[in-house]
Automatic annotation (TrEMBL):
Protein name in the entry: Recombination protein RecR
InterPro entries: DNA_Rcmb_RecR, Rcmb_RecR, Rcmb_RecR_Znf, TOPRIM_dom, TOPRIM_RecR
Record HAMAP family: RecR
GO biological process: DNA recombination; DNA repair
Length: 202
């Protein structure tokens, strides 16, 4: 039996989110139904403002509030070292690990032909443009250690070869500590730090 219409709409909205099944969606909807209206209004306002108050960084495509994200604005960061990640969640995971002092480039996903995502659907052209400036000395490929992540890393290295960038930029791949098939955003800080320390040249 389906829930009453207003509740069902909220359940459907939650169910559309990644990782939320029907039971979890129903629990969340009924939880919100019992929350005081003031808290519910604050929650809904925060959701409304989410897209309005955020923007993508003009340089690395991380989520921020200004033209450049806090990482790119930080003068103490090593601008010659760029860590390439699939999503802003992966970037957040590395920042929580608190061992990396360079900057980032967020691709916006990984090459996945079966899902219709090719290299041109990612921010690889923007990465190549950054590399051509000559300011980057090391590129750390920190895509997920799964089939899509590996294919993305290989495509980037091949593209760099075609553009003659391999002679001027050192390319490394995150190493030990991350099991094959794992997602970076779920790894703990120590594991990510070890993965960065154990990176190898490609």
């Amino acid at each position: 039996m389906r829930s009453i219409r207003p509740v069902q709409k909220v359940i459907d909205a939650f169910e559309a989110l990644p990782g939320i099944g029907p039971k979890s969606a129903a629990r969340l909807a009924y939880y919100l139904l019992n929350v005081p209206q003031e808290k519910l209004s604050k929650f809904s306002e925060a959701l409304i403002r989410l897209k309005k108050d955020t923007k993508l960084c003009s340089l690395c495509f991380n989520v921020g509030e200004e033209e450049f994200c806090p990482v790119c604005q930080d003068e103490s960061r090593d601008k010659s070292q760029v860590c390439v990640v699939e999503t802003s969640l992966d970037l957040l995971a590395f920042e929580r690990a608190d061992g990396y002092k360079g900057i980032y480039h967020v691709l916006g996903g990984a090459v996945a032909p079966l899902s219709g995502i090719g290299p041109n659907d990612l921010r690889i052209p923007q990465l190549m443009a950054r590399l051509k400036t000559g300011e980057i000395k090391e590129l750390i490929l920190a895509t997920n250690p799964n089939m899509e992540g590996e294919a993305t890393a290989m495509y980037i290295t091949e593209r760099m070869k075609e553009m003659g960038l391999r002679d001027t930029v050192k390319v490394t791949r995150i190493g030990r500590g991350l099991p094959t098939g794992a997602d970076i955003e779920y790894a703990d800080g120590q594991t990510l730090t070890r993965a960065l320390e154990g990176r190898g040249e490609m």
